[in-house]
Amino acid sequence: MLEATDRPAIDARPAGLLDAGPVADRFVEKQVLMDRQAIDRALRRIAHEIAERNGGLEGVRLVGIRTRGVDIARRLQSLLAGTEGAEPPLGELDIALYRDDALSGLRLPEVRPTRMPFDVEGTTIVLVDDVLYTGRTVRAAIDAIMDFGRPRSIQLAALVDRGHRELPIRADYVGRTVETRRDQSVLVRLDERDGVEKVAIREPAEGRDGG
Predict the structure, then answer these.
(1) What is the distance between the alpha carbons of residues 154 and 42, in angstroms, rounded to a whole number?
(2) Is 201 helix (H, G, I), strand (E, B) or coil?
(3) N or C: which end of the chain has fewer CB within 10 A?
């Protein structure tokens, strides 16, 4: 069994998913897609679908992609424990150095840990992320998982699928699918990290109108 493993990484959010800060100040909120109740309903449905598709939780491992993918994976773990009577093991994955654009920026990477406290060999890995966009984050996550061993299968759960795929990747479990423009961003805020619960579309403050 693999013990908790630390690896260097950065919080390489896909272009279009912007956190609070100076860059986000140039964006304005256009529409709230999901409130607290909608997020809760979506995660309950995803948890049910995970258990149903896999015939239970035997061999299932949840792996959250940092940062908010980890928060969502913890919630799914708790929901599954409540409905299935078993708590699937949880890993935390930072994929920054696996991204094909990791070294294209000028800023030095922020080092964050990857924790995989179980053997992935022969298991069913459910990767969990907040927003599915180009697919590059997921591709990087699959590469990172394979460094730990060869799972029987890898599935993907995303709270929001905003489209604009650049790689042939799709989610097995989706909370909400929404059409977006590339110049927009999908902002996910969760209680445990942000003190607020919502998913919203943002767009450039001085950008064009319409959608």
Answers:
(1) 21
(2) strand
(3) N
pLDDT tens for the chain, 211 residues long, are 333 333 333 333 333 333 444 445 688 999 999 999 999 999 999 999 999 999 999 999 999 999 999 999 999 999 999 999 999 999 999 988 786 665 555 455 564 789 999 999 999 999 999 999 999 999 999 999 999 999 999 999 999 999 999 999 999 999 999 999 999 999 999 999 999 999 999 999 874 444 3
Find out whether 95 and 140 touch, Cβ atoms under 8 Å. yes
Question: In a 10 Å sphere around its CB, with 0-12 CB exposed, 13-18 middle and 19+ buried, how is residue 156 labelled?
Answer: buried
Residue 49 identity:
E
Half-sphere exposure at residue 140, Cβ-oriented, CA atoms within 13 angstroms: 24
List alpha helices for 33-147, DSSP H: 36-53, 68-84, 136-146
What local confidence, expressed as pLDDT, does residue 104 receive? 54
User: Angle 68-84/36-53 helices, nearest 10 degrees?
Assistant: 60
- How far is Cα 79 from Cα 87, in angstroms, rounded to an integer? 9
Residues 113, 142 contacting (CB under 8 angstroms): no
How many other CB atoms are there within 10 angstroms of residue 155's CB atom? Answer: 18
Place of tokens 């409905």: 83
Q: Cα separations (Å) of 204 from 24, 46, 182, 183?
A: 9, 32, 11, 7
144: phi then psi, degrees, rounded to nearest 5:
-65, -45
Distances (CA, A) of 158 to 4, 105, 188: 24, 26, 12
